[in-house]
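Trying the structure run again after the queue cleared.
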Amino acid sequence: MGKKVKKEVEPPPKDVFDPLSIESKKAATVVLMLNSPEEEVLAKACDAIYKFASKGDENKVTLLSLGAVEPLFKLVSHEDPLVRRNAIMVFGIMASNNDVRKLLRELDVTNSVIARLAPEEDIVVHEFASLCLAHMAVEYTSKVQIFEQGGLEPLIRLLSSPDPDVKKNSVECIYHLVQDFQSRAAVRELNAIPALLELLKSEYPVVQLLALKTFGVISNDRETRIILRENQGLEHLFKILETKEFNDLHVEALAVVANCLEDVDTMQLIQQTGGLKKLLSFAEMSTIPDIQKNAAKAITKAAYDPENRKILHEEEIEKCLITLLGTDNDGAKAAASQAISAMCENLASKDAFGIQGIPQLVQLLSSENEEVKEAAAIALANLTTGSPSNASAVAEAEGIEPLINVLSAKRDGTVANAAAILTNMAMQEPLRLSIHGVMNAIVEPLQSTNSLVQSKAALTVAALGCDADARTELRNASGLEPLVKLLHSKNDEVRRNACWAVMVCASDELTAVELCRLGALDILEEINLSTGRKNNFSEGALDKLLDNNLSQKYSQMGYLSSSNIITDGFYDYGQVKPGVKLLSLEELSIQELNDHRAIILVNAKLPEVSPSAEDKSQDLYYGRTASSSSIRKSSKERTRFVADKMGGPIERDKLHEFSWELHISEIEFELKCNVVPIGKIKKGTFYHRALLFKVIADRIGIGCSLVRGEYGRAWNEVKLVDDSPQGITGLLLPPQMYIVDLMYQPGCLMKQGSAEADHYQRI
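Done. Tokens:
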């Protein structure tokens, strides 16, 4: 054998760097490695950063501050699959941090991340790309970017991925996206509903839950509900509800069913298949408060449709809701009350609730939970509207005191509906008379800044103010002032109801005088001059105020009807211009003597009336037919008395010689006052005599009006029925209006419109 020769080892090339293993314990060093040109270094750096970021939110903030996001963004689209995968994994983890998401939005990374959802990408890439998008879709701006850059279609495709994490992330992102109506429409167009229904069969509860939550949003659209029904979606939902092991999904499943029940076709289908009975039984028997609450909400949504209300009534929905009122959970009680409110549109249901539901709702008015209190008030308001029997049931359930207490509740809706219930009850006189203390409590709602509360409170005053005791209570509680302020409201309904309340409250003189003092008269005059602000009650309110303030009425309108009875304290100031405030008698009495016309005061005891004259007056006052001759005789007696008291008859040609002005001035000087009692006047002209005649006629109950003309003229009008023509018995002629002559031929009656009447009324 020959000798072995040792083979020489070739030295490595001089231009090749020997491999170097680096062990770094600082994140900053690894972040620097993200800029390396070597794929292996990049992959390992991304992997190390992923593990670091996974340990907690503080590490994500550290990486952000070290500037790791920008180079990672470049690596998400790297040509090497491993680098690309590891980079997107980091993005998926770090996007859970709010500050990181903010930077990602600024960098506009969504397009690059959406590209990673492509079918050719690795499942791990799908998982973390969809996770990143799910985190980002929480914010509105990113949501818009994902939608506009076509992210919805690949996300829907990934709902069928074999990987459960990919499904979970994709459906979560879709859930966030469909909060916007554009995405909801796109979900339908992209046929996502079958894939979402398949997720309901997932073995992972979180996937099922996210799918249900997504359905809860998209089923708000009717078109989606139709597709859901066509794809047997209701069967899937009821299967979940019937499975006890899925009780953690029942709340969300019920929310979807609630939306579906809005459609009559769906309601009919569920009724026909027995699903409705199951649903109601499920609601009654469940011990989970949120399930009871969502079941009641489902009924509420369905009950907005009249056909659905009919179906629900056929299924005796009332029993279910009354049962839910008695639960221990406030949310379920409130939801049941809301469902009752919706069902009240069905008259048969309204009657059914009245028997057992009203006492429970009355009890809920005293709940410490404001939401429950408000829901109960709304339900009772709807139950008592147009239903006297239900209004009586509230009283029988001792609901008046709790309702009065609720008028000071925190929520405007509670207060407004409590006022509405009291108004509904006050429509029946026996109930109205049993309601005490409301006017004290209604003052605060009248001062509310909420227009609905103001409107309902004013309506309550209008309903209860027809009783004298209630008006006194409101007056003593200083409630008239806030009521008058509501007349200024720019809200038409508030202003209308305030006018109505003022009209009712002005039924007695004390209240009318106080309303005028507070400025109601001036405000109503202003309202009635405006075609836009005037309403059905503003004119009536003004008339009522003036009818109980005849001095103001005569000065302003120049007319008092036969029903306007002059009493002591009336004074004739003369005509006032529109907008000029009439001073009170007290204010006028303390004025210094002036050369204006005297204020004529009526202040006398009721005169004794002869039986014969009283009988004649009653014939007219109570509408009986009195003969023309008997009335003429009575009128002559009164007119001769008036004329005799004020200077006697005057010849037309010598009217200018009748020096009544000097006589009145002498009385003013004697009294040192511009106010002259009518009883002291011995020489009076047209307007003195007409006023005295009206006063006497009112005292003995004979209908007579007082009309002011121009240039000191005034006259009285009486309606008389002429005697039947001879030979015709029982013929009732229409009454005729006559003017009473108190100046020239006292006792003469002139037919209105005649030449002599016109001559008497004008110079």
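DSSP finds 44 helices and eight strands in the chain. Worth checking whether this holds up in the mutant runs.
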